[in-house]
Amino acid sequence: MRRLPLLLLTLFIQQGICQHKSSSTTDFGNIRKMVDEFKTDPRGPYRDIRWFCTDGSIRMPKDPCPETIGPGVQHARYKETVESLGKTEHIYLGQILAYTEPNILWDGSANHSRLKQYQIGKYLASVDDGWVLRKGQFYRGAIQAEDEEAAGIKFYKWLLGKNEELTSNYFLIRQSMKDVPHSGDDNLAQAMRSQSKNISDGYTAFMDLRIKIHGQPAEADIKAVRSFREQHSNKASAGILKQIDVLINTMEEFYTPVKITSLLDGKKMLKGTPLGTSIERYIAQQSQETSPAELVSATASLLYEIRTGIVSENRPTARMYLLDISLKLEEIIFKRAPQWEPSTLKELLSKIYHLGMGTTGAGYIELWEWDQIKNTLNYNENKENITLGELIRVLNTARRQTEWSASMVKAIYGDEVNRYTEFEPLAYGFIDDRIRGSIALHLGKTVSELGDIVAQQSNITNSVLGIPEQSAVRGLNPGYAYGELVVVEGSADVVEVSSEKIYIFERPPSDLKPVAGIATVAEGNLVSHVQLLARNLGIPNAALSGDNLKSLKKYHGKMVFYAVTGNGNVLMKTEDDMTEAERSLFAKKVRKDDKIAVPIEKLVLSETSVLNMRDVDASDSGILCGPKAANLGQLKKMFPNNVVEGLVIPFGIFRDHMDQPMPGQNNTYWEFLNNMFSEAEAQRERNVPEAEVENFQLEKLAILREAIRKIKLKPEFVADIDSKFKTVLGRPMGELPVFLRSDTNMEDLKDFTGAGLNLTLFNVSDREKILNGIKDVWASPYTERSFKWRQKYLSNPENVFPSILVIPSVDVDYSGVLITKGISSGINNDLTVAFSRGAGGAVDGQSAESYLLRMDVTYELLAPAREASFNRLPVTGGTMKQTATFESRILSEKNMQQICELAEAIRDKIPKDTDTDYQGAYDVELGFKDDKLWLFQIRPFVENKKALSSDYLASISPVIDQSKKVSLSIKP
C-alpha cells in the first residue's frame, strides 16, 4: 500500500463505522419498500394518535389530559416498524418534534444525525408531494403546527445555551433554523426550487426556466414564468398550469423585499446590546432606498458581525433572535446580489470581497479560514491598476472560497444524504439545494465573471465542449487522453473503470484503477493517491464545479479528446472536432520499450531472517526489501528521535514460502505464477485478444491470491518474528498494536511511484491477526487493481516481490504528507503540505487542510479540512471513530516551523547520507502527537516528465506575463 494506515482507514470512514451500521449490513431494499408503502398509507409512518400528558401518561385522543396533571400535547405515535428502524439502523422517518426531547434531536453521539435527517425529510416532503406523508399529511391531529413550533423554540433555547456547540456547529445550527419551526417562517427559497422542479418533471418545456431558477435566480424570473404560462396556456395541462400559478405566488412572496425596519420587531431584548445597536444603525442607514452595491456590502458586514459577536451574547433567546436576523440578512443578499451589476473591475472585486464576507457570516466557511484569505480578496482601493499575477491570485483564492463553501455543505450533510440516497434517490438533491439557496451561489457566479476577465487578459482560455461557466475548470496536472467520456454523479465506489476511458467524478474512488484521464469536483487535495498517480503517469487531471459536471452529463458516452497544459488551461472536444495533430498523438500504440522495467539484477533472496529496521538503509531498497523499509531505516539513522522502531520481513522470506507446494496444484506457488505468465505470452503469440489474455491472468491470479492467504507460515519464521517483537519492539507479539505495510520492489522506481497499489493493515494487536495479516499483505500485489497498474506501465510485471514493514502504531493527533516542492506554484523551494485529523491523513481523496508553505514560514491556505470524522488508534487495536468540527485549524504556527526545519534537513542530509545525486523533491509522510513530529515514510516525488515536456501541450499553453498591468477601470 502507498501510505501508512491510510487506505483502509479511509474505507472505514466511508463505510460509516462506528456511528451507524455499515451499508453492507443494512437492507436498503426493505427500507425502500417501507417508504413506498408509507407514501400510499393514509396514516403514513404513524399508527395512531394519543394525548401525551405532562406526568408522562398517555391517553386516548378523545380523553385529553386533565388539568390536575398539567397540559398535554396531542400527536401521532410512530408505527412499530418505524420505531424498530430507528433502533436498529438509526434512521428516523416522519419525525415529530413534539415527540422528541432536545438532547435526542441534537443526537450528539451520532454527529447530530437525527437533526440532519429531520432536515432531509423536510426537503423530501417539498420535492415529492409530502414524501412519506403524501397521504399522512392529511391525518388530522398527527402533527400540531403550534406544538411543533413550541418544540422548536424549546430546542433552540436548550441548544443555544451551550457556547461550545454554537462555536463548533455554527453552520449546522443556523441551517437547521431554516427547517425547524420556531418563528412561523417558511423556507420560500426551497419551495420555489421544489415547485419549479416538479413542473419541469411533468412538463419538459419548462426545463430552461427551471435551470434558470435553480442556477441564477433573479426577480425577473417572475415575468419569465408569467410569459411562459401565457405561451403554453393551450398546450400544458390544467394541473401544470395550476402548479405554475402556485410557483408565481411563491416567487412573488419570496421576492417581496424584506422589511428592513422590521428586523428588530418583537426582539426588544436585543436593544442596547452591542449587536442590537449595530442592527439599529443598519436599519437607519438601509431602510431608505439604496443601491444594490451599498445594500449588499452593508448587509454582508452586519451578517459577519453577528457571526463574530454572537457568542458574547449569553442569553439563548437573544441568540435565537440574532440567528433569525442573520437568516433574513442572507435572504436580502440572495435577492439583491443579482441586481448589483459592477461597471468596473474594481467594483467586481469589491462584490467578490463582500459576497465572500457574507458567505463567511452565514457559516459556509469558518472564521479562521476567512482570516487566511480576506487580505488577498480585499484589494487596495487607491490603486488604479493591478498586475495580472495579483489578479490571478485573487481569482484562485475566490475560487477556493466557493469550493470550501460547497464542501462545507457536503461535509456536514454528506453521510446522512448518502444513506438516505440508498433507499430514496431524491435525497441526493438535498446538498445541491442547500448550495443553490446560499450566498455562495452568487459568489460563484461573480467569481466566474472574474475568471472570464483573467482568461481574456492572460490568454488562458479553457475550451471544454462549449459548456457554460468554463472559468471554474482548472487544470491540476498536465497530460492528454482520448477515450469515452464517463460522467459519474454521486458515489464512484461501485463504478468499474477502464483504462481506455476518461472519467468525470464528483469524488473519485479511493482505490482507482487505471484510467485515461480524470476530472473531479474540486481536487480533494493535491497529494492524495489519485492526484499523485495522475501526476506520476501523465494522466490529465482537472478540477471543476458541480455545475460543470452536470453540464457535461449530456456528453456521457461520447468519444472525446482531453488535454491539460502545464499552465492549467483545459481542452476537451468531441472526436469529430479533433485536429490532425491531435489524432496523430494516438495513431500508434505505445511501444513496449516505453514501459518501465523493474530492476531485479541486485535482488538478494537468500536473506530469510526478520531484520531490525535499524540494520537497513536506503542502499538496501530493491535488494533486501522495498523502499518503505529501506528509507524508514535511513530516516531512523538521520532522525532517531522522530522515527519508531521497526521490523522488516525481507523479500527472501516471501520467496522462500513461495517454493512450498501449492494446494490443489502439481507445482509450487512460484511455478504456478511463472506458468501463468508463460501461458499469457504464448497466447499473445497466437494473437489471442489482449482482453482475453488479461482475463486469463486475472482468473489465475485470483486462485494464487486465495492460496497465498492460506499459505502455511514456516515454524522457523514464526519463531523468528516472535523473538524480534520482544527484542526490537520491546513487547511480545499480540501485546503491541502494529502496522503491516506492503513494501514491494516495484515501488518508487525512477519513473513509477506505485502509489497506493498494495495493502497496509493498520493497528493490528491480536497475534493471529498479525500472522494472517502477513499472508494478506503478501497476496495484495496480485489483486486486480495492483496487477492492472503494473501490467499497463511495467515491462516485467511478473517480477514483483513483496517485503513487509512492521512498525508500532502511533496514535497521532493529526497526520499528513509533505512534498518538498510547491505543486501549485511549481517552485522547487516551496513546500506543499496536507494534513487531516487523526491517523491516516490527507490521502485517498480526503479533503485535507492544505498549504503552500515557503521556507521563510509564510504560507497560503489552499484548502481547509472537510472530513466529518477521523480515526484514533486505541492500544487495544482497531480504530475508534471521532467526529470532526472545523472551527479551528489543524496545523499550528509551531508545526509549520517544524515542517520547514524538517524539509531543510531532508534536503541537506538525504543526498549526503545516501551518497546520491538525486536533486528532486521528496514525498514525506508524517504526523504530530502532542506537538512532537513523527516520520513514517520518505520517498522521491515522481512526476511525469513526458507530460510536462510534451510539444503538443506546450503548443496550446500560453505564456503568461505575470507583471502585465490591468486597469481596474475596465468593464467586466
Automatic annotation (TrEMBL):
Annotated catalysed reactions: pyruvate + ATP + H2O = phosphoenolpyruvate + AMP + phosphate + 2 H(+)
Pfam family, one: PPDK_N
A GO term, aspect molecular function: pyruvate, water dikinase activity
Cofactor: Mg(2+)
Sorted UniProt keywords: ATP-binding, Kinase, Magnesium, Metal-binding, Nucleotide-binding, Pyruvate, Transferase
Coiled coil feature spans: none
Broadest EC class assigned to this enzyme: transferase
Domain of life: Bacteria
Entry EC no(s): 2.7.9.2
Residue ranges occupied by any Pyruvate phosphate dikinase AMP/ATP-binding domain in the UniProt entry: 625-947
InterPro entries per UniProt: ATP_grasp_subdomain_1, PEP_synth, PPDK_AMP/ATP-bd
Pathway(s) annotated for this protein in UniProt: Carbohydrate biosynthesis; gluconeogenesis
Similarity-based family: Belongs to the PEP-utilizing enzyme family.
Function (record text): Catalyzes the phosphorylation of pyruvate to phosphoenolpyruvate.
The protein's name in its UniProt record: Phosphoenolpyruvate synthase
Organism (species): Pukyongia salina
